[in-house]
Queue: 4 jobs
Job 1
Amino acid sequence: MATLTLSNVKKSFGKTDVIHGISIDVADGEFIVIVGPSGCGKSTLLRMVAGLETVTSGEVQIDGHRVNDLEPMDRDIAMVFQNYALYPHMSVFDNMAYGLKIAKTPRAEIEERVAQAARLLQLETYLQRKPRELSGGQRQRVAMGRAIVRKPAVFLFDEPLSNLDAKLRVQMRLEIKALQRELGVTALYVTHDQVEAMTMADRMVVMNGGMADQIGAPLEVYANPATEFVAGFIGSPPTNFLSAEIIGQSGDARIGVRPEHTRLSDSGNLKARTVYSEALGAETLVHLKCADGTQVTVRQDAASTIPQEGTEVGLDWDRANEMRFDSSGRRC
Amino acid sequence: MEKRVKFKGIWLPILLVLPQILITAIFFFYPAGQAIWQSLFIPDPFGLSMQWVGLGNFEFLLSDRYYRASFVTTAVFSILVTVVSMGVALYLAVLADRLVRGSGTYRTLLIWPYAVAPAVAGVLWLFMFNTRVGVVTWYLGLLGYDWNHVLNEGEAMGLVVIASAWGRISYNFLFFLAGLQAIPRSVIEAAAIDGAHFWTRFRTIVFPLLSPTTFFLLVVNIIYSFFETFGVIHTITSGGPQQATTILVYKVYADGFVGQDLGSSAAQSVILLAIVSILTVIQFKYIERRVHY
């Protein structure tokens, strides 16, 4: 258990700057999710905390101690990899015991700690198996077990669920979160999936092009996105963006309105033609196209009447739900 | 799903495997059969008559002090060649694997010796270590060491081992490097996070994961050192001094074609054949069990 502090951390590969300075204070026991599209530098950031990449400038502190120049093994962290990175020639038991054996932990204690982790992860009956004899979800659990037994100060997760199928992903999402709460350990979790970020995070860091666009609690980020990118990335279906001009305002600002805040109405200050609608059961997503080609999605209650495809309808929303972004994408 | 082709008749499949069977029959079964047959006779030096001796050739060989010495020589030689060529290759491969820039050049340069024929390699090393004009001999002389592999048995063995292993290093290096690069990076990183330093990682993770490659190379290198080193030995030492480098294959040649004792030579071929068969069976049966995957 520990705090984690990043102060203006930067990373360059040769002349290419990948991370442009990120600062964040992670409290003890906090679950932080770093979310962003491919290539935004989120995995690199995690690997810098792990010590698998050097820090170009800035400082990484674990529990108040600078760890920039420490080897991964001296940082008191554990990491779960996307492809699990299990040792294929070792049994599940040996996989979990590896770190403890290297630390020369007494045999009895190793057995006790592995047994404890195995119980927690429901792996007790698989301890003698090799990783290749396990399913994807079980391998994932072994990777978690390997991290748990070492009782690290910080847990690092690098897209741990992306190799699982959709159903298992939902289940493991809950398990990981529950486990983290139970152990009360500080966690840094990288994902490109905004649903994982929304559901698991105490606070999330939305990264875009090597910068942290916004850091905050999931609902706060959702309700109050700091940039146009965050508004578009968090939330599904994504926020509708309209130029100020087409709703009769001056300036080059862009207006963002979430699909659930957009209404179909006869009056409305904007006209659009319905293109396509997706009935999802509890709700229906209506996709429309404005005169200038802007696409808009409206989330409708399934009970409401859905206009025929090709009809022209009005769009309306409360001004309170409007989000304005300047030309650089910042909130204004 | 396994893809299987079903033939209607018997003739087409026979025709398809015929070339392989013919090659094996003409170049392996026929000469091997001849060797077994000949090993039961003593022919006169001109090949005009053959006298049946049964297992006499084998009896004579197994009680022959020189032949038994040749067994020991072969064992020493092939173990040394295999250990040296695989050890050096593994070391170089580990270094090349850690290299980020220039690994292509390094790799290409290391592969070159493989293109050198064993006999040519033998001549190259012979020149370097020539007792009168060799460069290395001269430098060793400056250091006060009197190199003379023509008289010194240990030096002769050392030289043929180096010359035989040298070309092999390239080959082994290629396989080791490919094996190393097939190990997922994240597994190594996980071990690093788990607290394993470089040598611990190598011993507990890398080497076990490399074992299929190592096993394959072990078999190939032992067979190489048994048979394909003839050229090196012939050019450098011709089996001397005092038969110190006469490995079994060289003795087959020396007794048969130089000593004109064709019956004994044939018997030696048969013994060699048996040894290699047994070695291969042992290797696959016992060593493979400890190989992962």
Job 2
Amino acid sequence: MVDILAETVNTAIIGKGLMIGGGFIGPAIGIGLIGGNYLQAVGRNPEAAKFLGQALIFVAIVELFGLLAFASIFIVK
Amino acid sequence: MIVGIFKQVAESGPSVHVAPAGVLEIGGVTITNSILYGWICGLVIAALLIFVARRVTVKPKGGLIQFIEIGVDFITNLVEGAFDDKKVGRKYVPFFVTIFFFILLNNWLGLLPFVGEGFRSGENPLLRPFTGDLNGTLAIGVVTMIMVYAASIVEAGGPLKYIRHFFIGSPKNPLYFGIGLLEIFTDLTRVLSLSLRLFLNITIGEIVIAVFAYLGHTVAPLTALPFFLIELFVAALQAYIFTILSTMYLAIAVNHASEHTDDEYLTEQDVPETIGVQTSGSVRGQV
């Protein structure tokens, strides 16, 4: 069964698709949490709006893991 | 002209280049398309900034000079604010301003329509964005981190004293030794994380624009335009993030060095032998 599947289906494409899908879920949730919490903080205390730059740094840190997942699809053959 | 180039992209399919390709060879050294465009961009950026620096007055005329001034002012405030002592921060402002403008203008110049598929040399594109190449961003990252390490060592007063800052207690304690080694390892991954973030953001932007120009076919400029605008924003954001992260790496090391001028580290005597002894002593004394 597995042999037939490996011969008839291009497993690399499936692997790449799963990699992109799975790898982007985490950063998506993370960036959503950062953005949501930033807006909540601004809503409670409008003076916190000046910390947008700091929030963007954390976006960049979280985003790196999604980008690494994207970069990995070029290794899968 | 722009429409024609987009059409050419649309008809040839979404071509995705992640690795640079050699275009010429000088004395056995292959010159890739990204380093070629990097040189051109470097010359353009140097000429632009020298031109602006000659014309800075109290009341600047023209949008370009004001734009550069706003950028310089922004990064100056950012770097000075990150350090405890503003005078120490002032010394490093020129370096970070240079890095910021080099990355920002390289990212923006890489978005020009003739970069990528516009001109070809053989099968490969003649020009490629410099920051869309891992070699380019790795070079920027290595230069930045060498500068950060050198400045940290100078501020700490010697390489051994700098390394000593990674250990919160005596290195003879195996726990503190292990934690210190992990800290040093974390520090060394910063080169990779800085350069990979910049490279992947710009490369993904190129790929997304190419894909949507291909999907648009005859109306390629319209479909690619929103992503082009997003990429303009991402380019500025990545330049900002690269600058502020490297500033933070330096500021943390320098601020930490100025806090511990003497041997204020935890010594063997400061660490309680067991937690029970410490709590019974201090808590009972206070209560």
Job 3
Amino acid sequence: MQNKFGLKDFVLMVLVAVVGVIAFMSMKQNDRLWAKTQDLISTVGTVEQQAAKLERNLQNTQASTDEMLSKADEIGAKVQNLDDLLSSGAFTVNTSNNANSNRNTGSQSTQSENTGRGSWARPGNVPIEWQPKLDFANSPYEMEGYKLGGEFTEIFEAQPSKLTPVLAEDVYGRRVDDQICETLAAFDPVTLEVSGVLAEAWQYDPNGYWLRVKLRDNINFSDGVEVTAEDVRWSFHDYINNPELETESLRSIMTSIEEVNVISEKVVEFIFNEADAYNLQSAMMFYILPKHFYSELTPAQINQSTALAMGSGPFKIANLDVDNQWAPGEDVVLVRNEQYWGPKPALASLRFKAITEDIARLAEFRNSTASMIRPSSPQFSKVSREQGWDNFAYSNNWINIRSGYSFIAWQCGPRNGKLTPFHDKRVRQAMTLIIDRQLIIDDIYEGIGNVAVGPNNPPSPAANPEIDPWPYDPERAVKLLEEAGWVDRDDDGILENERGDEFSFEFTRATGGQTIERLQKYLVDQCASVGIRCNPRIVDWSLYDQIMKNRDFDAITLGWSATAPESDPKQIWHSESIQNQGHNFIQWDAGQDVYIDKIKATLDYEERMNVFHQFHALVNEEQPYTFIRVSPWLRFINKDFQNVETYPKGLEQREFFYAP
Amino acid sequence: MGVYILRRLLLMIPTLLGITFLVFMLIALSPGGIGASLNVGSGQMEQTSRAIKEAYLEDRYGLDAPASVQYVRWLGRISPIKLGKRDLLDPTGEYIRSPKEVKEPPLWEWYVTDLPIPEPTDPIEWDYDATEDSKSRVYRRQSNVYSQSRAKLITGRAQLDTELGKAIGELEIKNAFNSKGKVKHDVVDSNREQIESSPRIAEINRLGNDLIGYYQEAINERENLIAVFDAVPYPQAGVPVVPGLYLSKPDLGRSFSKSRPVSELIAEALPITILLNLIAIPIIYFIAIPSGMLAAVRSGGIFDRISGSMYIALWSFPIPLAGVLMIGYLASTNYFDFGVFPASGLHSAASEDYTYLPSQSATGWQPGYLLDMLFHIVLPVSCLVYGGFAVLSKQTRAAMLDNFNMDYVRTAKAKGVAYKDIVFRHVFRNSLLPLITMFVSIFPAMLAGSVVIEKIFTIPGMGQLTLNSIYLKDRELLLANTMMIAAVNLLALLLADILYSMADPRISYK
């Protein structure tokens, strides 16, 4: 065989080279187009900004013209009055008359207010609750070194599967949607009171059967179209309550709203089918979505969409093209809504990126490619003590309304027809007494978190401030167990009751995590020290639902999360939830229903909190759960971002600004 | 040969069915069953709300049917041969099936002697000038009306079941719940007297009576919708063969944990996994084979010993630990200043504005989209690669050594062929056989993705998708993945057999 370089080889090589060159040139050409497109996009952005500015100016002029006109009217009316007075010849007015006319003008002025601002209200004496103008709690524009622009990258632990509002059910999707969509009202970040966002004012039936809401003027969606009462009605009736859409999670809990009626362009009325203390929240806190955008889409398009999210919020998704949506796996990028009607955020964009590995999250944070991460408790305590860390990052650790609590639940009723030892409240109290919760927090959770005291924990106003957590006192526990009939009768180190049954129980926990394993070991040890046998049972998380439904456990550990300052205790605690596999899975019934029913029916805030405190006292005495820990929010935030405040409500990204 | 291949291909169909059936039943019979993950989130919901939500989900995904029925339904969807009415295809590419059946309301015998029957409606005929748009509007309107009435029926049933459940609990009737915690209506029916003594009977009767009304409404609206459906408001899908039988594209269905079409999810994940493997596999081959050859030529020498022990050491190092160490040391500036590799993902945030190739722009040099991506996959690819050297290089070395001792090599040496030619032309060529077949077996692995690496580096590939589908017991996604992996495995086996016969004339399939 010879290796001869022939003509054939030459032609082949030339061909390969030509293909290579063509490929390279086409890439170059593509890149040129790309650069042009980028330029175009940025130009469009500036134009959009300017348009928004112009529009705002126009609106301001309009508003001042309106004001001037109304002032002119007022003056005209006064002149008219004067004229009338003059023509009636009432020069000599006595004091009583004067008072009278004063009262008259007084009533006139309220009337004019009624026609001008309150004509939408229902007749009657139901007070109108006017809401202040929407503003920052801490405005970035008043801070030193404030700058516009910058991107804030928040790291998620898992990828949200979709972002389309209401259809996005996971916590991450909702966090993104909270920046895009707005509700009629929201909890104030500082005071936690319900305060108006899209709503300018409302009137709430003292008996709790209706709610009339006046929308603000000059509110618009991110495409500039005004938000009207019809959008509110449509969002409720034709989006959330459209059975063709996969919105059932929200649909199935919003059953107390009978209907939403459009009264006028800016006024809606909610009719409730029962008076419930939580009606106001459920009516005010669903996303108001643009009818003109979503009604163009078929239900299948909405159901299968990943990111058709449009709203009136401070940020928006730049690309709302149905055929070219965001794909889970890419970062979620939200840009500032230049047409936002409220106080505009200082950041130019928000980026949400999913990183599943906690070491990788920390690495990206150290490299400043991530602006905020949620460290684990050990990470938090170790890293935040590093030298120089405080110059680099904020280490925030605070309890807010979304902090849940973890607990061990004791089976107070029968399991498979047999009562467990925990049906006796003294036994439950003893169990709490032998578990040193502060030690658990110090050793297992690195000292991060507070001992939980009950179903509501501070700073929630529903927590009873007079209740302290149960102490760690094994001696008292032994005495209580003795009272309940559990003593070591045959000297084998294990307690027996009168019938000679040994005190042993099964402790159910989910797989995964060192933390929970250590908790289990601690519990087993503590039980052994007083003569109780605790047998761990480790199950997969997906089984929990079934175990709880069938009440197939002696003791089980899990946590409840929270989303609001006070949550309706009915689902978890009411004795009615014992039946039909409700979530009172511990089958606890100790007269709590009185309080729970009263809480739901009490519309007055102070009074309701009072009942909440009584309920809390009962739970504390009965110890159906041993409350372990309120888990605070842990966040590392890069110090390149300023105006980072921790609120009782959480964090407000819209207030941050980037000033490296 | 052709006949052999055809026979193998036909044999593949029952094998595939067997594999998917087995996997599906394993998941379905495991505690919790299909769709258990859908209910995990309903922790703090009120009972009725939860029941309604579950009822909606069961209705939409057919979760209340027995597992075997669910499997058969899935088969019907993926089969290219379809029976019954032809599906319609709406302009967005979505299949529209003939309207779902309405289930009988439970305990209807308590309230009426005969179940209501649907009132027949007149068939719809389009006006001469009916446009596509107006036809689809009619369909959409009627479809919505039917969904509304069906939703009422579903909520009504959930409410009745909740109320019945409470009554059962209070009366302590035994065995009235099935393993999924649903009320067994036949048990309720046989305990009718006891239920009627319950204080809840008034509410139960009210709900039960309402349900009959809802049922009537739902079946009527269904009839109306069928009339619209039969009038073909959209173009029909597939190719008809004989009446009642037609060919159509297989439909992989929708994942209920992500509520998106499975085909879309796979189309997103598969290219990423294939990209990683297409880069990793050549690297493994280009390093392992030459070093295996070298080790064989100088068998027992220093290189043989060092490379051999090094590859074995690498092979035995666990991948998760390696990944975490790489991130800790190479992706964080904490330990080394050069530790600047990205720790996750496939692109950096800025790359969205990059051009494809590196370029010099006004803001300075930018690496471009391509380089950025290559930079991002350095760590994951090295994780994929390092364990693969051992097997391949040892295989090459062993095969080469075998051939070195063959008679023809001795003959070649004796007749004075150059040593280089002996190694490359004679020995290496003959040692390639096992390597070719090994390459074939890599394809299935490519499809399955490397679960661990994708998890550590947050790469949204097939590994993550498959793992999630198992974890969440997502019927459609799981079955589609299983089927794909199984099919590629079987095809790879077939390909290996064919390659064998091509490479080695002694093997033939007659």
Job 4
Amino acid sequence: MSATTEGVLVEPASAARRRRWLDLTLSFCRRRPLGAIGAGVVIFMILVAVLAPWISPYDPLAIDFAAMLAAPSAQHWLGTDAFGRDVLSRIIYGSQTALIVGFGAAFIGSTVGAVIGVASAYFGGRIDLVIQRFMDILISFPLIILALAMVAVLGNNLPNLIAAMTVPMIPRCALVIRSSALSVREMPYVDAARALGYRHTRIILRHMLPNVMAPYLIMLTAFLGQAILLEASLSFLGLGVQEPTAAWGLMLRGAAVEFAETAPWMALFPGLAISLAVFAFNLFGDSLRDALDPKLRTG
Amino acid sequence: MNERTAPAPDLLLDVRDLHTEFATSNGIVRAVDGVSWDVRAGETVALVGESGCGKSVSALSIMGLISKPAGRITGGQILFKGSDLLKRSEEEMRKIRGREIAMVFQEPMTSLNPVLTVGRQITEACEIHLGHTPEQAHARAVEVLGLVGIADAERRLKQYPHQFSGGMRQRLMIAIALSCEPALILADEPTTALDVTIQAQILDLMKDLSRRLGVATLIITHNLGVVARYADRVNVMYAGKIVERGTAREIYASPRHPYTLGLLRSVPRLDEPKRERLAPIQGQPPDLTRLPPGCSFRPRCGYAVERCAEEVPPLERVAGTQHSACWEKDKLPVRAAKPEKVPA
């Protein structure tokens, strides 16, 4: 105890905090190697998406009729599609779409869901009942059906796509967060905040929400993988991102189906990219849940 | 019944004939059943009684924090600085909570938010109620930390609650309560969760601060030992009613209600010959949904007479400022402990 207090005295708080994060990260890698691999792939994906203009060998939209349906070779590592577009470049740029939509939908979906869940638990009674029944109705629709319906109603540009995908996520997150928030609601510090004359919104957002951070992070990471899969599915069904934008789901349809036997690389590699991304996000999310779970139980 | 008619000018809080009920599946619980008491500016008043007698509900009623719709204040007045708190809107009450009347809770381990720094939890109240800038609020936080005797304030403010011990956390709770300079602090069992040596420190601190800053304090406790040392006046509650009231000195020297007598006998004392065993109060606290007719304490009372089963004894003056709600109040034994020292 005394050693840590002295340590704080010597080094600035920010450095101590950085060291704490480093320690946490290292122990996470040691204890959950699978999760660390997942996290590594996720980080790799993010790097690829950010560096896409510099690392992709070709313009993802450049049509090259001289090299249509070319098999993987030294020029085109993963081959080309029916328009002669480089598959590797399209996968690299496709990661941008996947991550923007995935992170956007997962972040908005779980955050809105968390706020609704905490508010529902905080107010309780009739308000809780009404919110929960409404969430039950939303949850009774399969994820993809609800997202499909929303895209059909809203129209399919990128923001609408993200909005449509958040709708089925909100109730799922709200349910989980509510159950954690119910126990937080019974903590004396919430009563203490009431006794200090704070507003409901302040108590919900500033005092209760930070206390359900662990389940929130778990829901967020779980949604990331789902969102990427959902985006790919919607694009595959023609209700997601539109041509000629590079998107993994989009690469699986149209010509890819037509030439599935003669040019399997057109569908194989984007399919692998989707699987790898979802797998990595889920591995990371699962390990994160395991790592945070004991705290959930004791907290 | 109406023992007080005109409000005395120096009354800070005047609770009159307060009724608070809870609807439960077993019926209506009259947690506070026609209780009147008051607090003058700057003094320390105690509300004493065992678990479930309505002490905490009284405090929550004053704060307007009775959980609806199960709980309801069905009658009475709570006059704070002369105006009735029960008539205030939620918005107006919010400006009173924390600003005019602050609360200190029982569990210091869980009454502080674990994810916010201690400093933030003190400055937040100042920023909201006093409109302080972050700098002013910080200065105020350093000041109140000094008041409650926490050294090295600048460093401590950056820490989280888990870095403080139980006693230190209760000091923090007091610091938060004091931060907006309230006129009244409601301390709900402030020392119950602490060990004995820390209890004395915290109570000394509260007494000292109350005297220095002129803050009135209501101490809610089940411990008559606490009361004797720190309170100016005492109200003893049983089953939602006040059964005895008086100055701490009066009550301690010659309790005039069998329940108070029982409470005092059940406290171990070092300043008198060792008894073979403590004398507990027989029986269980009553079921508030099914109170017996007459005096609620009768089933557990060793002095009960026939009349006790039929009529509820009113709170009547015994001597000085001491009041007791007992038919047999004049026939109770003078307290065994050193009767020769009872002040006149």
